[in-house]
Design goal:
By secondary structure, the protein is of the alpha/beta class. Helices cover 47% and strands 9% of the residues. The strands form two sheets. The chain has a five-stranded parallel beta sheet with strand order 3-2-1-4-5, sandwiched between helices. A two-stranded antiparallel ribbon has the order 6-7. The structure holds adenosine monophosphate (AMP) and zinc ion.
Length: 275
């Protein structure tokens, strides 16, 4: 089948990972990561699915249920990590993390937590990469958001494989659906009867991404593909990525651009002191 061929091709062409490699898949319960789980299982890859229960009411309950049922049915090894449990653990482990009632209030905060915890889990498991379900529509949205903010350099690192940093504590993130349109993925879920959470996260309703998504809604597939190609041309020429200016956070020890990582800033209320 064409879609399956393209999926496998992206993995091999961009050298994302190999069949024998131990990898983890970030499984949200949305269609994209479920499709990846389905395909990795079908083609015999060596992976563990990781679901993060973000404790966002009914939304998190149904996401978790979908992951559990899907993995059981397809005999996929699934591990669930709860946001609350992780935060409570930090209250005892980390300086500054004393807040008891932390809630995720928006996409930025959620993203910081997921990146931090997934990197930690992947490293502890000795995984070679972290697979996420980002598709071409997601990627164009991110590019445009960064452009509209006046910070195109924030997209320097984007691609099917995160370009940055060969560092023993940093686990690269890969996106096998990077070149697949949302439309194609939806078609595949219908053919294969893959269930997916249709609900959107209630805390993301008014985010900037939703506005950009609406703006792109009626664009043709061809235009979307052209957009990603245009971005790639710009970044090929302009990319000025420094190989590694990565530090380790002085509070939690995780890889960070500053002395205090984004996670410790957000969840422990700490700030890098520039003096
Ligand atoms: P999103 O940021 O919600 O568009 O999700 C992008 C990708 O991040 C998904 O395709 C998953 O691979 C991963 N992801 C999002 N939420 C979760 C979650 N709660 N648990 C595990 N992985 C997730
Ligand atoms: Zn930190």
């Amino acid at each position: 089948m064409e879609f399956e061929k393209k999926f496998i091709n992206t993995i091999s062409k961009y050298k994302l990972f190999e069949k024998k490699d131990k990898v983890i898949l970030a499984l949200s319960g949305g269609k994209d990561s479920l499709v990846i789980a389905f395909l990795l299982k079908k083609f015999g890859y060596n992976f563990t699915a990781i679901h993060i229960d973000l404790n966002i009411g009914e939304y998190s309950k149904s996401s978790r249920k979908i992951c559990e049922e899907f993995c059981k049915e397809n005999e996929i090894h699934l591990e669930i990590y709860s946001f609350l449990e992780q935060i409570n653990k930090l209250n005892t482990d980390l300086k500054g993390c004393k807040k008891k009632e932390i809630q995720i209030t928006g996409c930025a905060m959620c993203g910081v937590f997921k990146k931090w915890i997934l990197n930690k889990i992947a490293r502890e498991k000795g995984a070679k990469v972290i697979i996420t379900g980002h598709n071409l529509d997601d990627e164009i949205q991110t590019f445009l958001m960064n452009f509209f903010k006046g910070s195109p350099e924030l997209s320097n690192n984007t691609g099917p494989k995160s370009k940055n940093i060969s560092d023993k504590k940093f686990i690269p993130r890969v996106k096998p659906l990077y070149y697949r349109l949302e439309k194609e993925i939806l078609e595949y879920t219908k053919i294969k009867k893959i269930p997916a959470l249709v609900k959107k996260c209630p805390r993301s309703e008014d985010s900037y991404r939703v506005q950009i998504r609406n703006f792109l809604e009626n664009r043709e597939s061809k235009e979307k593909l052209n957009l990603i190609k245009s971005f790639e041309k710009i970044y090929d020429k302009k990319a000025t990525k420094k190989e590694s200016d990565l530090l380790y956070c002085i509070n939690c020890g995780e890889p960070s651009r500053k002395k205090i990582c984004k996670f410790c800033e957000t969840f422990c209320g700490l700030k890098t002191n520039h003096n």
